[in-house]
Amino acid sequence: MILCLDAGNSSLKLVTYADGSVLERQQWHYSADSSALQNWLQTIVAKVQVILGSCVANADTQAFIEAIVNEPIHWATSTSECSGVVNAYAQPENLGVDRWLTLLASHCALQQPTLTIDHGTALTFDWLTAAGQHLGGWITPGERLMRNSLNTATSRVRTGLENNAENATLAPAVNTQAGVSLGIYAALTGAVRQAINTSEQCFGTRRFAIVETGPTSLCQPLSYDADYYYKKDLVTLGLLLWGQSQDLLDLTDIEISRLFNWKE
Length: 264
Known about the structure:
- The chain is of the alpha/beta class.
- The chain contains seven helices and twelve strands.
- It has two domains: 2-77 and 234-260, Nucleotidyltransferase, domain 5, CATH 3.30.420; 112-230, 2-Layer Sandwich (Nucleotidyltransferase, domain 5), CATH 3.30.420.40.
- The protein has helices at 35-44, 59-69, 97-110, 143-153, 176-203, 234-245, 253-260, and strands at residues 2-7, 11-18, 21-29, 50-55, 74-75, 81-82, 85-86, 114-119, 122-128, 134-141, 209-213, 227-230.
- The strands form three sheets. Strands 3-2-1-4-5 form a five-stranded mixed β-sheet. A five-stranded mixed β-sheet has the order 10-9-8-11-12, with helices on both faces.
């Protein structure tokens, strides 16, 4: 069994793999009590051969995760090249490792011009050619950051906790909370729409793929000609490829086919 850790800015996602399949998913928000997570880890740790990790959280959070897991964790880093993907950054370590791993997974699965979209604390976009050349990307605040900025930087705009605009029309709102939710949703989907338009210029074709990950889909309400894939486990799938490149595990061709044959 392989345990993969995706330590984001607000939560830790854990996925176990065996024989080319997902066995179990867990998620722990850093603000929550960790007892249930520790109990779960105790039930599986004897079966785990290797633990792979991706971390974009701060050093204190990473150290706390290491203390909870209490087993060696192999933390991935962004490099100039890995698994057929070439990093566009002159200083490759500055590319967020979650973005890097998403690119590795997308290229392994598709090997076609691809726009990757990750909707988390930040909303990120990256462009990747069929040959595996990373062209660069964008970073913009995600829903939570937009909502928090309005709560903290304004005196009378209180936004509530949830964005319920996904299934709504973008008609003008008649109360503040709805106005914030619709405004944030318009900003996020507007960024996605612009990224899709930019993809045609980057790739020189309208035939490309969109790979999206995040709690909800920002692409579904939009019209586009691209092939579309929504994947929950992009970062942890990329971790498997990174681990393979570091000789930390040995995925068989059958396992790789099960994990990355997205087109069927």
